[in-house]
Amino acid sequence: MDTSKQIEKGLIVSCQALENEPLHSSFIMSRMARAAKESGAVGIRANSVVDIQAIQDTVDLPIIGIIKKIYEDSEVFITPTLKEVRAVCATGVEIVAMDGTTRERPNGEQLSDIVATIRKEYPNTLLMADTASLEDAKYAEALGFDFIGTTLYGYTNNTDGENIANDDFSHLRKLLKDINKPVIVEGKIDTPEKARKSLEIGGFSVVCGGAITRPQEIAQRFVDEIALIK
Ligand SMILES: CC(=O)N[C@H](C=O)[C@@H](O)[C@H](O)[C@H](O)COP(=O)(O)O
Protein backbone atom coordinates (compact mmCIF):
# COMPACT_ATOMS: atom_id res chain seq x y z
CA MET A 1 0.00 0.00 0.00
CA ASP A 2 1.08 3.55 -0.73
CA THR A 3 2.81 4.97 2.36
CA SER A 4 1.59 8.52 1.78
CA LYS A 5 -2.01 7.34 1.59
CA GLN A 6 -1.52 5.26 4.73
CA ILE A 7 -0.34 8.18 6.85
CA GLU A 8 -2.51 10.93 5.36
CA LYS A 9 -4.54 12.79 8.02
CA GLY A 10 -3.54 10.28 10.65
CA LEU A 11 -1.60 10.08 13.90
CA ILE A 12 2.03 8.96 13.87
CA VAL A 13 3.36 8.10 17.31
CA SER A 14 7.00 8.79 18.04
CA CYS A 15 8.35 5.97 20.23
CA GLN A 16 11.71 7.19 21.44
CA ALA A 17 13.67 6.93 24.69
CA LEU A 18 17.29 8.01 24.72
CA GLU A 19 19.97 6.39 26.88
CA ASN A 20 19.33 8.83 29.72
CA GLU A 21 15.57 8.17 29.77
CA PRO A 22 13.80 5.66 32.04
CA LEU A 23 12.23 3.68 29.20
CA HIS A 24 15.40 3.30 27.13
CA SER A 25 14.82 -0.17 25.66
CA SER A 26 14.02 -1.49 22.19
CA PHE A 27 11.59 -3.97 23.72
CA ILE A 28 9.67 -1.21 25.49
CA MET A 29 9.63 0.93 22.34
CA SER A 30 8.21 -2.00 20.38
CA ARG A 31 5.43 -2.32 22.97
CA MET A 32 4.79 1.42 22.77
CA ALA A 33 4.42 0.96 19.02
CA ARG A 34 1.98 -1.89 19.58
CA ALA A 35 -0.07 0.25 21.95
CA ALA A 36 -0.06 3.05 19.38
CA LYS A 37 -1.29 0.69 16.68
CA GLU A 38 -4.02 -0.70 18.93
CA SER A 39 -5.20 2.88 19.44
CA GLY A 40 -5.46 3.58 15.73
CA ALA A 41 -2.15 5.25 14.96
CA VAL A 42 -1.18 5.04 11.29
CA GLY A 43 2.60 5.21 11.66
CA ILE A 44 5.53 5.15 14.06
CA ARG A 45 8.61 7.35 14.36
CA ALA A 46 11.64 5.64 15.88
CA ASN A 47 15.27 6.33 16.69
CA SER A 48 18.16 3.87 16.16
CA VAL A 49 18.54 0.71 14.12
CA VAL A 50 17.79 -1.60 17.05
CA ASP A 51 14.58 0.19 17.99
CA ILE A 52 13.45 0.27 14.36
CA GLN A 53 14.08 -3.47 14.00
CA ALA A 54 12.22 -4.31 17.21
CA ILE A 55 9.27 -2.22 16.06
CA GLN A 56 9.31 -3.78 12.58
CA ASP A 57 9.11 -7.21 14.24
CA THR A 58 6.08 -6.10 16.28
CA VAL A 59 3.82 -3.92 14.14
CA ASP A 60 3.22 -3.59 10.43
CA LEU A 61 2.82 0.20 10.36
CA PRO A 62 4.99 2.47 8.21
CA ILE A 63 7.99 3.79 10.13
CA ILE A 64 9.77 7.14 10.00
CA GLY A 65 13.30 6.15 10.99
CA ILE A 66 16.00 8.40 12.39
CA ILE A 67 19.35 8.08 14.14
CA LYS A 68 20.17 10.78 16.65
CA LYS A 69 23.89 11.36 16.86
CA ILE A 70 25.92 14.21 18.28
CA TYR A 71 28.99 15.42 16.36
CA GLU A 72 31.41 17.88 17.91
CA ASP A 73 31.60 20.16 14.89
CA SER A 74 27.88 20.76 14.28
CA GLU A 75 24.55 21.35 16.00
CA VAL A 76 22.84 18.99 13.56
CA PHE A 77 21.89 15.78 15.39
CA ILE A 78 18.94 14.10 13.65
CA THR A 79 20.32 11.58 11.10
CA PRO A 80 23.10 14.09 10.53
CA THR A 81 25.44 12.46 8.00
CA LEU A 82 25.25 10.12 5.03
CA LYS A 83 26.46 7.31 7.30
CA GLU A 84 23.38 7.49 9.54
CA VAL A 85 21.02 8.07 6.61
CA ARG A 86 22.35 4.90 4.95
CA ALA A 87 22.03 2.92 8.19
CA VAL A 88 18.39 3.95 8.58
CA CYS A 89 17.59 3.18 4.93
CA ALA A 90 19.21 -0.26 5.25
CA THR A 91 16.58 -1.23 7.84
CA GLY A 92 13.95 -0.97 5.12
CA VAL A 93 11.88 1.78 6.74
CA GLU A 94 9.35 3.47 4.51
CA ILE A 95 10.54 6.98 5.41
CA VAL A 96 13.90 8.29 6.60
CA ALA A 97 13.89 11.63 8.38
CA MET A 98 16.97 13.81 8.59
CA ASP A 99 17.84 17.33 9.68
CA GLY A 100 16.62 19.58 6.90
CA THR A 101 17.93 22.88 8.22
CA THR A 102 20.37 25.10 6.37
CA ARG A 103 22.86 24.78 9.25
CA GLU A 104 26.37 23.45 8.68
CA ARG A 105 26.47 19.69 8.91
CA PRO A 106 29.14 17.48 10.46
CA ASN A 107 32.27 16.82 8.38
CA GLY A 108 31.25 19.65 6.03
CA GLU A 109 28.71 17.34 4.34
CA GLN A 110 26.07 18.94 2.12
CA LEU A 111 22.42 17.98 2.35
CA SER A 112 22.13 18.12 -1.45
CA ASP A 113 24.84 15.44 -1.80
CA ILE A 114 23.18 13.22 0.81
CA VAL A 115 19.83 13.45 -0.98
CA ALA A 116 21.37 12.74 -4.40
CA THR A 117 23.27 9.70 -3.09
CA ILE A 118 20.30 8.24 -1.22
CA ARG A 119 17.93 8.72 -4.15
CA LYS A 120 20.32 6.56 -6.19
CA GLU A 121 20.95 3.92 -3.54
CA TYR A 122 17.44 3.73 -2.07
CA PRO A 123 15.04 5.01 -4.74
CA ASN A 124 11.99 3.64 -2.91
CA THR A 125 12.66 5.23 0.47
CA LEU A 126 10.72 8.42 1.11
CA LEU A 127 12.62 11.39 2.53
CA MET A 128 11.40 13.67 5.31
CA ALA A 129 13.18 16.92 6.18
CA ASP A 130 13.09 17.96 9.84
CA THR A 131 13.01 21.75 9.57
CA ALA A 132 12.95 24.70 11.95
CA SER A 133 12.05 27.65 9.71
CA LEU A 134 10.27 28.60 6.52
CA GLU A 135 13.68 29.12 4.93
CA ASP A 136 14.65 25.54 5.83
CA ALA A 137 11.39 24.22 4.46
CA LYS A 138 11.87 26.02 1.12
CA TYR A 139 15.43 24.70 0.90
CA ALA A 140 14.30 21.14 1.63
CA GLU A 141 11.46 21.36 -0.85
CA ALA A 142 13.88 22.55 -3.53
CA LEU A 143 16.10 19.55 -2.77
CA GLY A 144 13.18 17.26 -3.53
CA PHE A 145 12.20 15.94 -0.09
CA ASP A 146 8.90 14.05 -0.07
CA PHE A 147 7.74 15.42 3.29
CA ILE A 148 8.54 18.59 5.18
CA GLY A 149 8.42 18.23 8.98
CA THR A 150 8.14 21.00 11.55
CA THR A 151 10.18 18.87 13.98
CA LEU A 152 12.89 21.40 14.82
CA TYR A 153 10.72 24.50 15.23
CA GLY A 154 11.65 25.73 18.72
CA TYR A 155 14.83 23.68 18.88
CA THR A 156 17.39 25.79 16.98
CA ASN A 157 19.17 29.03 17.87
CA ASN A 158 16.92 31.05 15.58
CA THR A 159 13.68 29.47 16.84
CA ASP A 160 14.58 28.94 20.50
CA GLY A 161 11.53 29.24 22.77
CA GLU A 162 9.01 28.98 19.91
CA ASN A 163 6.11 26.55 20.08
CA ILE A 164 4.20 25.27 17.07
CA ALA A 165 0.86 26.15 18.70
CA ASN A 166 1.86 29.77 19.38
CA ASP A 167 -0.18 32.53 17.82
CA ASP A 168 -2.79 30.07 16.55
CA PHE A 169 -0.22 27.93 14.71
CA SER A 170 1.13 30.91 12.78
CA HIS A 171 4.36 29.12 11.77
CA LEU A 172 2.43 26.16 10.38
CA ARG A 173 0.05 28.47 8.52
CA LYS A 174 3.00 30.28 6.91
CA LEU A 175 4.59 27.00 5.86
CA LEU A 176 1.38 25.72 4.34
CA LYS A 177 1.03 28.87 2.26
CA ASP A 178 4.49 28.61 0.71
CA ILE A 179 5.22 24.88 0.65
CA ASN A 180 3.61 22.52 -1.81
CA LYS A 181 4.97 19.26 -0.43
CA PRO A 182 3.02 17.55 2.36
CA VAL A 183 3.83 19.08 5.75
CA ILE A 184 4.06 16.68 8.67
CA VAL A 185 3.33 18.52 11.89
CA GLU A 186 5.71 17.40 14.63
CA GLY A 187 7.06 18.83 17.87
CA LYS A 188 5.21 19.84 21.04
CA ILE A 189 1.83 18.57 19.90
CA ASP A 190 0.79 17.67 23.42
CA THR A 191 -3.00 17.49 23.29
CA PRO A 192 -5.49 15.72 21.03
CA GLU A 193 -7.00 19.13 20.25
CA LYS A 194 -3.67 20.45 18.94
CA ALA A 195 -3.29 17.32 16.81
CA ARG A 196 -6.75 17.81 15.32
CA LYS A 197 -6.13 21.52 14.73
CA SER A 198 -2.83 20.77 12.95
CA LEU A 199 -4.65 18.59 10.46
CA GLU A 200 -7.63 20.93 10.09
CA ILE A 201 -5.29 23.78 9.17
CA GLY A 202 -3.76 21.63 6.45
CA GLY A 203 -1.08 19.44 7.97
CA PHE A 204 -0.70 16.15 6.11
CA SER A 205 -0.13 14.00 9.21
CA VAL A 206 0.72 14.71 12.82
CA VAL A 207 3.48 13.19 14.94
CA CYS A 208 3.07 13.04 18.72
CA GLY A 209 5.88 11.85 20.93
CA GLY A 210 6.37 12.81 24.54
CA ALA A 211 2.69 13.39 25.28
CA ILE A 212 2.08 9.70 24.54
CA THR A 213 5.34 7.81 25.05
CA ARG A 214 7.38 9.72 27.64
CA PRO A 215 5.78 8.99 31.03
CA GLN A 216 8.18 11.30 32.84
CA GLU A 217 6.82 14.22 30.73
CA ILE A 218 3.24 13.14 31.31
CA ALA A 219 3.68 12.74 35.08
CA GLN A 220 5.48 16.10 35.25
CA ARG A 221 2.45 17.86 33.83
CA PHE A 222 0.27 16.38 36.56
CA VAL A 223 2.78 17.24 39.27
CA ASP A 224 3.13 20.83 38.00
CA GLU A 225 -0.63 21.30 37.92
CA ILE A 226 -1.09 19.88 41.42
CA ALA A 227 1.72 22.11 42.72
CA LEU A 228 -0.45 25.13 41.92
CA ILE A 229 -2.70 24.40 44.92
CA LYS A 230 0.13 24.60 47.46
C1 LIG B 1 13.81 18.13 18.77
C2 LIG B 1 13.95 16.64 18.82
O1 LIG B 1 14.97 16.14 19.23
N1 LIG B 1 12.90 15.91 18.38
C3 LIG B 1 12.93 14.50 18.34
C4 LIG B 1 12.78 14.03 16.98
O2 LIG B 1 12.68 12.92 16.61
C5 LIG B 1 12.08 13.79 19.37
O3 LIG B 1 12.79 13.87 20.59
C6 LIG B 1 10.63 14.28 19.62
O4 LIG B 1 10.09 13.53 20.67
C7 LIG B 1 9.73 14.15 18.42
O5 LIG B 1 10.08 15.10 17.45
C8 LIG B 1 8.24 14.34 18.73
O6 LIG B 1 8.03 15.55 19.36
P1 LIG B 1 7.25 15.64 20.77
O7 LIG B 1 7.89 14.66 21.70
O8 LIG B 1 7.42 17.08 21.21
O9 LIG B 1 5.82 15.30 20.47
TrEMBL record:
Q: In which pathway does it act?
A: Amino-sugar metabolism; N-acetylneuraminate degradation; D-fructose 6-phosphate from N-acetylneuraminate: step 3/5
- Tell me one GO molecular function of this protein: N-acylglucosamine-6-phosphate 2-epimerase activity
What Enzyme Commission number(s) appear in the record?
5.1.3.9
Q: List the catalytic activities from the record.
A: an N-acyl-D-glucosamine 6-phosphate = an N-acyl-D-mannosamine 6-phosphate
Alphabetic keyword roster: Carbohydrate metabolism, Isomerase
Which EC main class describes this enzyme? isomerase
Q: Which family does it belong to?
A: Belongs to the NanE family.
Alphabetized PANTHER family for the sequence: N-ACETYLMANNOSAMINE-6-PHOSPHATE 2-EPIMERASE-RELATED (PTHR36204)
Task performed by this protein = Converts N-acetylmannosamine-6-phosphate (ManNAc-6-P) to N-acetylglucosamine-6-phosphate (GlcNAc-6-P).
Q: What is this protein called?
A: Putative N-acetylmannosamine-6-phosphate 2-epimerase
Species per Swiss-Prot/TrEMBL record? Vagococcus luciliae
